[in-house]
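Dear colleague,

Following up on Tuesday's group meeting, I ran the structure prediction for the three-component complex that the binding team flagged. I've pasted the input sequences exactly as they went in, so you can double-check that nothing got truncated or mislabelled along the way. The structure tokens for the whole assembly follow below. Feel free to forward this to whoever is handling the docking comparison.

Inputs:
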Amino acid sequence: MNEHERRESIALGGLLQLLGRLLCEELNPELLAILRQPDVREIFIGGEDQDAACARYLAQTWNAEAFEKAATDYCELFVLPKGISPLAAAWQTSNPAAEQAVTSIPKALSSITANVALTLPPAIDATPPEHAGRLLFIGGQLACSGDPEIAKLARPFLQATAMPWLERFAGTLASTELSPFYGRLGEILHQTCDHYLATS
Amino acid sequence: MPALPKIPWESIGPEHRLDYKRAFMLIDLNRCTGCHSCSVSCKTEHEVPLGNFRMRVRYLERPDRPTLAFLPLLCMQCQDAPCLKACPTEAIGRLDDGRVVINDEKCCGNKACIAACPYGAISINEETSKAEKCDFCTHRTEIGLAPACVASCPTDAIRFGDLDDPQDPVTQEAQAKQARPFREDADTAPSVLYVDHERWMEPKSNLGVRLSPEDDDIIYEQNNLSSKII
Amino acid sequence: MANDLSRRDLLKLGSGAAAALGIGATGLPLVKRLSQDAPPIDIAKLTANKIDYTKAKPVPTICFGCTTHCGVVGWVQDGRVRRIDGNPLDPNSKGNICSKAQGMISYTYYPERLLYPLKRVGKRGEGKWKRISWDGALDEIAAKMKPLREEGRPEEFVFHYGCDKTKGYTKKFTNAFGTPHRLNRRSICSSNRRAPLMSFYGREFEWESQDFENTRYIVNFGGNPMEAYQGGLYMMHRIQSARVDRSARMVTFEVRPSATASVSDEYFPIMPGTDGAVAFAMIHTILREGLENEAFWNRWANYPLEEVRKLVAEYTPQWAEDISGVPAADIERIAIEFARAAPACCTMSNRGSAKHYNGVQSDRAIRMLDVLVGNVGKLGGFCLSSLRGWAGRYGQEGLPKLSQPGPKPSDPKPWGLGEGYLEEPFKKLPEEVQERVLGFPEKWRKSYFGELATPSEYPLAWHWYQMRVGQLVYPYIKEGRQKVGVYMSFTLGASYGYPDAREVLLDESLIPFHVAIDIGYGEQTALADIILPEATSLERWDHHSTNNYGLVPYTGVRQPLVPPSGETRSVQIILRDLARKIGGGMQDYFDFESEEDYYREWYKNLPVSWEEFKRRGIWMDPERPKDYELYERPLTEAELAGTEIEENSGLVMKDGKAVGIMRDGIAVRGFNTPNKLINIYDEIWPTAAKAVGLPLDDINASPIAKWDHVPEHRDLGENDFIFTTFKWNVHTQGRSGHWKYHAEIVHTNPVFMHPETGKALGLEEGDEVQLEVFRPKGRTYRGGESGVMGSFKNHVRFLKGMHPKVVACSHHVGHWEHGAVGRSTNALTEPAREGHAQANDLPLQDSDVPNRIWWSKERGGTGGGVAINDALPINPCPLVGGQNWYDNVCRVSKV
């Protein structure tokens, strides 16, 4: 892996880890700080009018009330049954040949963990194996590995476990009116799937 | 303390492979209570998506009594399989013990098999456009386990045996009780035999496992009766 | 959606993120390879695959797909449960399972499962929540519960469960806290049919174990073991085997073509609430033909046969035909066939016969049949093997003692006046309640714990043990009979399945604080203030024992196959940690760290090692004889030591208690009743009637089985029908609506009726109807109030097997909470729906999930059925309190 490839891999890893964390954790001061990082901010908010709403949202005064509303939004979207479930089982279609069955996720995970030591932060670890955020974060950790053999696993890992259902999840999330922030997150995730995970 | 009984689920492996010459199923309609243990077990075993079925239990109103008859239906694993003959890409083949298996890598989805099947046993997966049906759980029989439906039936209404083995108790019972297949007029020599299947069941059995607009079963209810549900 | 992001944009975002996350240029060594010899991972080769049984791990456990609790084996592959099989070592189920076993996999892995503790935001019932930590949740709950205990009003903590199979673990918690309020749903289910059994045979035998393996003739009054019934599966495989392999015959009286009726050798549609008449006519016939077992009756029944002859003199088969619709000639023939098959014959009955105004007395008549022909405890007959298995106190001699480890908190004190009673909570009760209770016999006063646990108007709901009257809990709270401080729901679906629940649960003045422990976000948890997500049955421990239809006591263990998903925790851990936070001595009863150690201690007296027991999942002594004729067992010398014989009764007395009875000069154990006999005649009914002011001419006040009509069934008009509910074999109670493969089979609950009934109403199959249910007329809650209780709309289906005067719907479906399958919706989720219309370049359409929920309305299907519970009145049977589900009179009209 040359220098350029490695830098790209780390960038991809950073992206995947951020997306993963945003799906597993409610917005908190730490995540907001990451979202204020100039490059992150530019891409997250850059774009058309929909994202002006996102910009306003992130720029609001983040008092206790705002954090509680953010937590309620998170719950309504990603935890409650009438939300947009980040679990694979909610998005599987009747196409077992074209995509992985939910049960192959544990198999892929156990292959990885048999060979590689993963440390997951508590918020990620609290999720079940087929949670979109967990899978993205693990992919991100693989991509950031100093070992090029492991870094190369990130993309096939996510292709095996998260595609194409993740794209459907992302697309639905992108269209939500509940939260401009999570809507934008959906768009970014969808584009990530398109650019990085779709098999050409 | 007397010896504890053996633990049956610990004897699994290729050395226990069910080595039949002619695999068959015996379905005793006198024992079936319509519990769906078989069909739900099949769904779970093969992760069959909603809307597709490899096996189904139909509830039929009897003509002679005011009660229901229960009819488990699946692929009849015909010895002379019309689906096999009809397939233009040779995607349907036969294993050593006579069961019929679809190789979905070769399937082109032209549905010739479905048109040819007298038993409505084949479904098309609408997403992949490939054909699917029961394969007598090859992945289980290879290591000594009976097919999932057989293992899960609580009344021994579905059993698995070797029709070519006269010592097989399932075969003996099939003969003693004169078990017969459905649609004998189709002349396909099915390997699924029914005890006390009755003529009047035939029209309903033709619908097989698929959902269809003509299906007026009180279960798997569809919105297809004369007055539509609003 | 803007397609404005290029690869470069994403990489830029990513690098920024990496920097912000502290991932350096060389990459954090976060992820290390564990070993250089590990085989290379070829993820591309990981395809969708079948279960590989040579790699998957089999772990025995106990099913929780219904309340029968068969021994099963779960297959775990790559940390995920893939399939459930029966455990052949279970002597009850013998390796058999039904479809609901696979439901455990559904409810463990469905996408809308509750995985995190939640706290409500905004108003209760608004549906807005946020995640909180376990510590935060338990701290808040403890803070609300502590004052109740410290201020001497622990009874304001109400623990309300739907399905508690922890075999005493939660009771430890409620006792340690000091509240008597462990509320259940026994009366909603089967208390009407348990009371007659306990009256006849004693507390230990609220449930029978017919010897179906060896029986030749079964007379079934409305039972449906092929689809439901406590122990249904144990009965199903034995009955089918007996019928098909050994020519046993089963006759069923039913109101619809249930699976049991359909496999029976004979099926007779019967007018609801008239099973007792048929049973009496059978008794009449048997006596007329001289087919009774006089010797057995005289030896064991406490009522002279002569009196029985007088009792049934008018109850002829023709009389019964006029009432029930069952042909007289058939009633006669069946009675004779039944008696001739004795002792290898038995009756069967459950809610179908018993959940009526006259149902308790009907079941007493049905139970009389077995005593009359002397099949009780005999080979192929009506046997009694204790339901409480290991914990029972009759027939468990020689079994290793199995009990919950650790110190046992004492039961709370009864409420009343004087020494040994709690006066404070008693004095808070309404005046008339206090008066009534003070007038009770001492035995009842000593077991009275307030109106929720021991409703004073229904003493027989708690005379033998606390069956309670669950359907009155919410009305009583509303009426102010009991103040509630903290209300805890545990696997309870009351908001979906109990009348009046929602109104009370939404009222914060009545329920100031509601904690719900459950595995899914259903109608009950939606009305909580804090939700604690529970581990499923595949993820936890429990002790297991139940009555064996193979007639030998056995025990099993539920053990985890996989760790709890997400942040869920077992109820054992939840209550332990809550006890520790509440403190004040509660923590002493929950002094354990590892659950496995707790259960290992529980089973320590088994003659097998713990590892071996876990490997098998079940233990039974294979040499132990079956529980036939337990009552004839002679007393041992040790048991006889120090006893005296009471002359008149023949009772063998020790320290003021009867330990046996003399029969023909031999001291034998006798039955589990105070007089050691079978109590055909029992004063408890008129005693209870007098205590609550029920007129003695009410059928429920009769000391002997009696016939009378259900009050609202007299003078039924041509357009009046009886509305009945029923259970399907693929569902269980109110908690299986979201099991996908089961919902696929049954997702609707049409109104079933006879085609002739439909024709007379001008209906075609599939037509939409409005069904109105009227209030009951008997001496019950708001009985006699006129008018419609409620109504619902649904479509009709015709079945020739329906009784022409009966219309029937199942429940199970019609959920408005739970996930996509539970609500039978294929719609895009609500937060997304509004935005979807604009985003037409999105790849996501319904077609992307083509067949997912094919029965949803969005896909042109029937949708998910109708919730019917609000239309059904609270209708507790006098004295016993069982909900009289099947008395409801209704009208049906085309919409």
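Residues 145 and 151 of chain A are 5 Å apart (CA to CA).

Cheers,
M.
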